[in-house]
Design a protein that fits this description.
disordered N terminus; Alpha-Beta Plaits; single chain
Length: 167
């Protein structure tokens, strides 16, 4: 048996899909949108390290955003969905997990519902921000206090964005 003897953290990370009105080229483009200078400088650095995508309703962009959404906790509540499934099938959660056909049916249904949710969210975000520029950011609180502030400190509150929690 193995025992964990060092420090255990409850770290988290989040990705952000963000729409900017224009391509970010310098500090002036972000300083009025981000609430602290240090955070604005980090966002600028991260913007310059990527190639923005012009937001337009296309299958390619829909797939990209949908894929990003699927990597986090953006879909249907798992526990609630499980409870509803078990109630509908008149089984217990224990029976669900020991009966492979029920479990496969549950996961297939759960995945299909989530795919629909991701698709709807992706299309809505794209339509609402058509003509703007899409950037993707990722920050984790395990990378220190500053990155924790980037993740949890409402960095993109002045911009249209989706936060994808990957706790």
């Amino acid at each position: 048996m193995k025992f964990k003897t060092d420090f255990v953290t409850n770290s988290s990370s989040s990705s952000f899909i963000v729409a900017f009105d224009k391509i970010v080229k310098d500090f002036e483009d972000v300083k009025y949108l981000i609430n602290r200078e240090g955070k604005a400088r980090q966002v600028l650095k991260d913007c310059l390290a990527q190639k923005p995508k012009k937001i337009k309703l296309s299958q390619s962009l829909i797939n990209t955003v949908k894929e990003d959404l699927s990597h986090g906790y953006m879909g249907v509540d798992y526990i609630k969905f499980q409870e509803q499934f078990c109630e509908r099938e008149r089984i217990t959660s224990n029976e669900l997990y020991i009966n492979r056909p029920w479990y496969n049916a549950f996961t297939d249904e759960y995945n299909k519902v989530n795919e629909k949710v991701y698709l709807e969210k992706a299309i809505k975000f794209i339509k609402e921000n058509e003509g703007k520029y899409l950037y993707v950011f990722s920050y984790a609180d395990e990378d220190g206090e500053f990155m924790s502030e980037m993740e949890h400190g409402f960095t993109f509150s002045q911009l249209p964005h989706i936060q994808i929690s990957q706790h």
